[in-house]
């Protein structure tokens, strides 16, 4: 880290301390870990959006906003005597060194797959060393988006050997779950079986190297873009979009697709 980077980080920490001081900002002084939860989530999603758009100027700004949230939470915790920003930085630094013995120690690995296996083994040992060992799936944040949670749970389960032998099995499970939705007799059963369809789709995507959360975000973005193009076409032609028939809307949809929307 350059001297300039260190000075910039210390300046940010000092700014947050001043904002939270008796002479600081009334709004900043009122914030708690709970009140800041939404901001941490929103800033993270804005960083993801910048990555998806390959807008690296925006990404630099959004990562700054994420960093602000980390320092903000650390300042709140420091004031309560729980932990400090030093604990946060030292903790993750120690973890990185501990889980990269092939870089900071004598361990040998051939490729990225062996690194992942080594990482999982080190995490397993750390869990077992805790007073109450937890499940391999026990530390997945329950507030994660559902698709992302499902994929991470499946990935971790697969690393223990609980997985389909091939992609065909995962795809066959999708078809099986779709049939069960069609046979569901009650709203509660339909909801349960529909969840199983989504879960099996995530699993099939994992086998194909598709990250379900990203795939659905991309589909959402395409839908919004094409729908907006349909509305624009209707306005340009003096048409009332809402009054168009479904067939007319479908025609606009196909036209929007051809235009690349």
What features would you describe in this structure?
The protein has 261 residues and is mainly alpha-helical. It has 3 domains: 3-98, MazG-like (Helix Hairpins), CATH 1.10.287; 146-210, Helix Hairpins, CATH 1.10.287.1080; 214-258. It is 74% helix and 0% strand. It has helices at 3-19, 26-30, 33-53, 56-79, 85-98, 101-104, 112-129, 146-159, 167-183, 187-207, 212-236, 246-258. Helix 9 (167-183) packs antiparallel against helix 10. The mean pLDDT is 91.
The biggest beta sheet reads:
none
Order of helices and strands: HHHHHHHHHHHH
Q: Segments where pLDDT lies below 50 for 5+ residues?
A: none
Count up the helices: 12
The percent of residues in helical segments reads: over 70%
Helix/strand layout:
Layout: H1 3-19, H2 26-30, H3 33-53, H4 56-79, H5 85-98, H6 101-104, H7 112-129, H8 146-159, H9 167-183, H10 187-207, H11 212-236, H12 246-258
Helix pairs in contact: 1-4, 3-4, 8-10, 9-10, 11-12
Brief overview:
The protein has twelve helices and no strands. The protein is an all-alpha fold and 261 residues long.
Keywords for this entry:
261 residues; single chain; Helix Hairpins; mainly alpha; 3 domains; 12 helices
């Amino acid at each position: 880290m350059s001297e300039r980077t260190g000075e910039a980080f210390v300046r940010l920490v000092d700014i947050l301390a001043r904002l939270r001081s008796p002479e600081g900002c009334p709004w900043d002084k009122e914030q708690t870990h709970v009140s800041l939860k939404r901001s941490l989530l929103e800033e993270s999603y804005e960083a993801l959006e910048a990555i998806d758009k390959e807008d690296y100027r925006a990404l630099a700004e959004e990562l700054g906003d994420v960093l602000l949230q980390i320092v903000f939470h650390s300042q709140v915790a420091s004031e309560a005597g729980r932990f400090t920003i030093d604990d946060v930085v030292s903790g993750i630094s120690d973890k990185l060194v501990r889980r990269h013995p092939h870089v900071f120690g004598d361990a040998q690995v051939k490729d990225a797959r062996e690194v992942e296996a080594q990482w999982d083994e080190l995490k397993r040992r750390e869990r077992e060393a805790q007073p109450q060992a937890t499940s391999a799936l026990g530390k997945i944040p329950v507030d994660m988006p559902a698709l992302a949670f499902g994929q991470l749970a499946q990935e971790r389960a697969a690393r223990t050997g609980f997985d389909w032998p091939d992609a065909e099995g995962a795809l066959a499970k999708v078809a099986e779950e779709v049939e069960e939705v069609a046979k569901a007799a009650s709203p509660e059963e339909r909801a349960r079986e529909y969840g199983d369809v989504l879960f099996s789709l995530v699993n099939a995507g994992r086998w194909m190297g598709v990250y379900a959360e990203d795939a659905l975000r991309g589909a959402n973005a395409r839908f919004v873009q094409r729908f907006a193009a349909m509305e624009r076409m209707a306005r340009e032609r003096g048409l009332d979009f809402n009054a168009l028939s479904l067939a007319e809307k479908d025609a606009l949809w196909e036209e929007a697709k051809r235009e690349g929307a």
